Predict the structure of Mycothiol maleylpyruvate isomerase N-terminal domain protein.
Amino acid sequence: MTIDRVAAFQRERAALLSFCAELSQSQWRADSAAAGWRVQDVVAHLGASCRALFTPAAITLLTTRDIERANNIPVDSRRHWHWSQVLAEYERWSGRTLRAASLVARSPARALRTRLGELGSFTVGLVLPGALVFDHHTHLRHDIAPAIGAPAPGTDAERMSVVVEWMLAVLANQLKAAPRSCLRAPVCLELTGEGGGRWLVHPDGRISVAGDDCGPIASIRSEISSFPAWATKRVDWRVSDIATSGDRELLTTLLDLINVV
């Protein structure tokens, strides 16, 4: 399946705008599931991230060694804003980001590599807009909607494929940066549902598509919808819907290591 990251971002942006249009003033001010952030702070983060692409703030995101701290700085500077200002900034700059992503996708620049803080190196075409699809999906469905008791918006196979693509790219960089002895054998990761698939996670950081019989000594199976929750440590993998088989020590090592931010 060929995925269109720009179209995925366009639909994810539309989902967030539609969701935000229904929020009450009290819901905007409610605590989200992201520690220390209200609902409007989460949206402020998304808007500030889009805006940063067009300002010198982008340099901070590219070079930081603490991307979570870097994300907190623009949120803190917007805490006094009215929610309507937050939403207006998001709508304006996410629209510009969508247009920029469309241009990048059609140009040779998509193959250039760039760093994104301590997350490592990626192609520009993957970061823009793959990282934003992941960020939107995860914040909306795991930080905002459940915190205010609202139903999470639906998604589709293409959007979930982009989310997983980004998460596996971050995981690959994590493994490459980890000690070589950390993972001593391949592990099969199977995500079920729309956009899912099977991958082999190799000790050297490579993540390859697996066939019907990937033949590892350990495997992890999970619904794709819960992957962003446990793989970002929002939910402890031990109490998630994960099913494992094989070498318990090997599985625990990998599952404890995974922390996609």
In short: The chain has a mean pLDDT of 95. Residues 83-105 form the longest helix (23 residues). Residues 3-153 form a domain with the Four Helix Bundle (Hemerythrin (Met), subunit A) fold (CATH 1.20.120.450).
